[in-house]
Amino acid sequence: MEDQICVAIHPRGSETRVLATALGGSTLLKARLAARPWHQRALPSLLEALALWQSRPVHAVLVADKGDATFVTSLCPDLAAEHARTPLYTLDVALERRTG
């Protein structure tokens, strides 16, 4: 298994939570950010910066509500078919159905 950084991105209501962990589960970064980024390159830039800082590739998963495709597009406009791959990071989308 490749030594990589795992990042979970979870937009919820008034904030987006980001958790980055190293192999073995140690926390590298934990953040509560604004619900929506100010710029469309914010998420790709964050993932690229983390990969460059740690000198390791990033595998990120964006957990999003099934009914909010526009939100996913605003976070990462280059995302095609629920998957993005660059030399520095991969980004997958996991769609969930909210209950309650």
Q: Can you offer a commentary on this structure?
A:
It is a single chain. This protein has 100 residues and is an alpha/beta fold. It has one domain (5-96): Nucleotidyltransferase, domain 5 (2-Layer Sandwich). Helix content is 20%, strand content 42%. It contains 2 helices and 6 strands, in the order E-E-E-H-E-H-E-E. The chain has helices at 42-54, 69-75; strands spanning 5-12, 15-21, 27-34, 58-65, 83-85, 89-96. It has a 6-stranded mixed sheet, covered by helices on one side. The longest helix is centred in the middle third of the chain and has 13 residues, at 42-54. The chain is globular and about 35 Å long.
Which features characterize this protein?
100 residues, alpha/beta, Nucleotidyltransferase, domain 5, 6-stranded mixed beta sheet, 6 strands, globular
Radius of gyration: 13 Å
How many runs of DSSP E, i.e. beta strands? 6
CATH architecture classification: 2-Layer Sandwich
How many domains make up the 3D coordinates? 1
Shape: globular
